[in-house]
């Protein structure tokens, strides 16, 4: 499940599908386990940034997830598109009604602050709760094994 795309910078070269972030959640339909991420797409000119770390602005590291890095062009100057994410523990989301800020750090030394608004978190959690309620977990789902043979 993905939340709405929110901007962290102007669209790169006027292309709408660039420089955005969103919350996304993955639910394992067998176990009910849910993984949440703040996903970021960052397109930019100049030297490679190589995003490689994430932390809460209020303190506390988050697991950084590298997704992709692509060179757009290097004809005159180089341009790059990087996709990355920070893993978000569910208690962090459920305890952040007012939102929070994540700071991403690149090997190049720059930082990018992403403000995640409370209403985006509330909408994401509501969608997750609704999906969980609609899908039985492995413990509640009927077994795929055939029923036992009747006694003789």
Describe what you observe in this structure:
This protein is mostly beta strands and 152 residues long. It has a single domain, classed as Immunoglobulin-like, CATH 2.60.40. The protein has two helices and nine strands, in the order E-E-E-E-E-E-E-H-E-E-H. It has a five-stranded antiparallel beta sheet.
SSE layout:
Blueprint: E1 6-7, E2 20-27, E3 34-45, E4 51-56, E5 61-62, E6 64-73, E7 79-88, H1 90-94, E8 99-106, E9 111-117, H2 118-134
Antiparallel strand pairs: 1-2, 2-3, 3-7, 4-5, 4-8, 6-7, 8-9
User: Strand sequence of the main sheet, in spatial order?
Assistant: 1-2-3-7-6
| N- and C-termini, Cα separation | 49 Å
Sketch the topology as an H/E string, one letter per element.
Answer: EEEEEEEHEEH
The DSSP helix count reads 2
Percent of residues in helices comes to 10-25%
How much of the polypeptide forms β-strand, as a percent range?
Answer: 35-45%
Integer-rounded radius of gyration: 20 Å
What's the total number of strands?
9
């Amino acid at each position: 499940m993905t939340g709405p795309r929110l901007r962290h910078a102007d669209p790169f070269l006027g292309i709408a599908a660039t420089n955005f972030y969103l919350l996304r959640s993955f639910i394992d339909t067998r176990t009910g386990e849910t993984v949440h991420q703040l996903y970021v797409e960052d397109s930019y000119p100049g030297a490679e940034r190589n995003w490689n770390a994430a932390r809460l602005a209020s303190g506390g590291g988050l697991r950084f997830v590298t997704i992709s890095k692509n060179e757009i062009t290097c004809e005159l100057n180089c341009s790059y598109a990087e996709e990355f994410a920070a893993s978000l523990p569910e208690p962090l989301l459920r305890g952040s009604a007012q939102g929070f800020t994540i700071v991403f750090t690149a090997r190049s030394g720059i930082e990018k602050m992403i403000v995640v608004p409370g209403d985006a978190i509330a909408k994401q959690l509501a969608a997750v709760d609704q999906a969980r309620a609609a899908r039985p977990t492995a413990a509640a789902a009927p077994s795929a094994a055939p029923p036992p043979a009747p006694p003789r």
